[in-house]
């Protein structure tokens, strides 16, 4: 009996910990290129949250790749600049929970005083999937839970407990988003 109770409690704690692991962040990533499609290393990028005004910065690596990790969900724009190129700002895009949002940035040759706004088509997320497991256990130890005693004074069952709450219930759910 004790081992069953211990097993049920352990299962409940593990599933509760998994449920608390949910978060509301996403990732913005991709490549900085020039007009010919060549990568632009060491480009400075700024990610602006249009709702809160919070900004984050990053620098593209030697392959032109950049990423912003653990970004809160909301509306954003990316601004990129590099020596010898015009500053480029993307259109607004919305981040959703656990998304890996690809945002391509193409710089154009020019002086740094010129700013170009990119009017891009809808950005399609192609490299993100998510598996979510959820478990809810009610009355995990399967103890008897009595209903409230009868409270009608004129009834002959006054003060008597006549029913119980339902026994143990386990709800499991699995959700795959892609």
> What is the CATH domain class of the largest domain?
Mainly Beta
Ends: how far apart? 42 Å
- Indicate the radius of gyration in whole angstroms: 28 Å
Oligomer: single chain
Write the layout of secondary structure elements.
Layout: H1 2-20, E1 25-34, E2 44-49, E3 55-59, E4 65-72, E5 74-81, E6 87-89, E7 93-95, E8 100-102, E9 105-107, E10 115-117, E11 130-138, E12 169-177
Parallel strand pairs: 1-8, 1-9, 6-10
Antiparallel strand pairs: 1-4, 2-3, 2-5, 5-6, 5-7, 11-12
What does this protein look like?
The protein is mainly β. It has two domains: 65 residues, no CATH class; 103 residues, Immunoglobulins (Immunoglobulin-like). The chain is built from one helix and twelve strands. The strands form three sheets. Strands 2, 3, 5, 6, 7 and 10 form a six-stranded mixed beta sheet that branches. Strands 1, 4, 8 and 9 form a four-stranded mixed beta sheet that branches. The longest helix has 19 residues. The two termini are 42 Å apart. The mean pLDDT is 80.
């Amino acid at each position: 009996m004790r081992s069953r109770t211990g097993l049920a409690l352990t299962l409940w704690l593990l599933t509760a910990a998994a449920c608390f692991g949910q978060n509301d962040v996403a990732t913005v990533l991709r490549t900085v290129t020039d007009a010919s499609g060549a990568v632009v290393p060491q480009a400075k990028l700024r990610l602006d949250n249009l709702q809160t005004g919070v900004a984050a910065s990053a620098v593209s690596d030697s392959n032109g790749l950049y990423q912003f990790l653990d970004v809160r969900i909301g509306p954003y724009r990316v601004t990129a600049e590099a020596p010898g190129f015009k500053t480029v700002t993307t259109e607004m895009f919305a981040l959703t929970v656990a998304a890996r949002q690809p945002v391509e940035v193409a710089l154009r040759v020019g002086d740094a005083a010129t700013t170009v706004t990119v009017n891009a088509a809808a950005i399609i997320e192609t490299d993100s999937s998510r598996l979510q497991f959820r478990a809810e256990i009610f009355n995990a130890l399967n103890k008897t839970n009595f209903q409230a005693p009868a409270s009608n004074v004129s009834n002959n069952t006054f003060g008597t407990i006549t029913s119980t709450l339902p026994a143990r219930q386990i709800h499991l759910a699995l959700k795959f988003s892609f």
